[in-house]
Fold:
Amino acid sequence: MTGISGMADAVLRGSKRIVRSRATALAGASALLLGLVAVTTTAVVAPAAAAAPLTALDLKFISGVNGTALKGALLDTATAPLTYQYLIQYEATGIAGDSAKNCLPPAPKSTGTDPQYPNNCQWPGTRTSNTGDPIVASGNQDDIKAGHVDLSVLQGFCADQAAKANSTPESPSQPCRFLISIKADGYEIGGAHFSVPFNSKVTTQPAATLATAPVVSLLQYPLPLANIRV
Structure:
């Protein structure tokens, strides 16, 4: 009986040690888990605030060599200033999506077309166009850096052009598109297209802003030679 009792005591003491070991292991795992949660929590970074919309024209530049522009390789004009002249033209190229009622010749006994055709049609291949797009601004890098090219002024120019354009109730809003040409020292002439928010169908215009600066591709001199076969 004594042997059996001693064996029972040993088993009981072993069971207690196992329970204490398991409790210790569980406490350690819980502490490790809490530590990981704490580390993960402190590592969360708040998202960066979005850049404010541009109210004056700004530019970014991509440089290229051997006649090929390098995609995504923006020039650092802050540490290496770029000297250039610019010219901004209004793109009076028409509206490809103009109404068919404005742009189809009137058929006999038809009331579905414009009797004034093609006067009110803004299709690029049909509209009455001038010989050159008007120049709205020019200057150099100092004007751009100082924010002298106000986008609201460009929007106002678009409003003036829309007021002069032939249109009907079916005509869509006149576009407000521009082309900026750049002549930079050491580079071939480059340029970029951009649009200013505008709606010729309403009296209150949207904010004259750009989300990002237009990107101008510039090819560095010397340019590769080309072969011409006659």
The longest helix spans residues 2-43. The helical segments are 2-43, 100-103, 141-145, 151-164. The longest strand covers residues 177-184.
